[in-house]
Amino acid sequence: MSAIPLARCQFLIPFADIHDEAGGPTTSLLEKFRLPASLEEKADHFVPLLPMIRFAEVAGRSQGIADLGFQASRRLQFCHLSGGLRTLIGSSPTLFTALQRVCKWASLEDTVLHMWLERDDDHVRLCSKLAGTAGMPHLEHSQWLQNVLPIHIVREFAGPDWVPARMGFEARYTPHRDTLAFWQDTRFLPGQKASWIEVPTSDLSRPNLGHKEPAAASDDEAGPGDGDFVSTLRLMLPSYLGEGTPTVAQVADMVGTSVRSLQRRLSGVGLTFSDMLGAARFDNAARLLRDSDAKIIEVAFSSGYVDPAHFTRAFRRISGVTPRQYREQSRLR
């Protein structure tokens, strides 16, 4: 990891666009902080984080733009995450798995971004913190993005209208009245040990709503473009679960590639064959639990498990709840 905090240019674009629309000299201000002017062309390139934050503060103050971090966050959507992270989320069978992967791969967005989950009774907090920025002023600009992008991730599972009941900021920050009006169902807590959004534990087992990220055509090399390859495996694997667990060699043969190539392509999007097999088993089990009255032991056998206790542990590891709890929650929903 680099000693210099870096972030993707994508996250600077909304700040620059708002400043430009307000009539500010955006190009010269970017040059002042030694930031690239051609941001759209370099959206996936990395630039130093601290000049980005200084740019945002000066841009908002000079043009009288209230709560610029909030304004910028309104322009970001799920599609603005890096391709690799979108693929990881898109291949996650439940919100719980997606959040775990986001925590593991947060550095795909900012090199010093650390994310983790904290459980507390009936909810979890998805926390984020930028290493090496403690005590730095005006971090609320960055922390708006740190909180809003996870909200869009949750919405991939809970629907487009989902909002957190509470949102924490590490900065000692007071939201503008327009911000409070927009987030009228959310309570803001400043001065926290990290930035975070609150997610009910009952939402953790929500399945992916099926929003597929378009993937570019790719050859046999690994990379974010292998999202279509991952989708193909997810569609294929459930067909073989009732006949014993398929091995990586068998699956490689089925899709016409070598074991090494298959593993490399999965590794390129942050997955392993075990991840894919576990997701396929979970998808099959979740469907049976939601849509049938099959006994838990029958669901386990149909999903490729010979030991119901192993099935329960594996299911809970992915969804955060037991199979029985999942069935009850899905029927309530």
Describe the structure.
With 333 residues, the chain is α+β, with helices and mostly antiparallel strands. The protein has two domains: 6-203, Alpha-Beta Complex (H-NOX domain); 224-332, Homeodomain-like (Arc Repressor Mutant, subunit A), CATH 1.10.10. Helices cover 47% and strands 10% of the residues. It is built from 15 helices and seven strands. It has helices at 13-21, 26-32, 49-63, 68-73, 83-90, 95-104, 140-158, 177-182, 227-236, 248-254, 259-268, 273-291, 296-302, 308-319, 323-332, and strands at 6-8, 46-48, 113-120, 123-130, 166-168, 187-189, 195-200. The chain has a five-stranded mixed sheet with strand order 3-4-7-5-6, with helices on one face. Helix 8 (177-182) links the parallel strand 5 (166-168) and strand 6. Helix 5 (83-90) runs antiparallel to helix 6. The radius of gyration is 22 Å and the shape is globular. Residues 212-225 have low confidence and may be disordered.
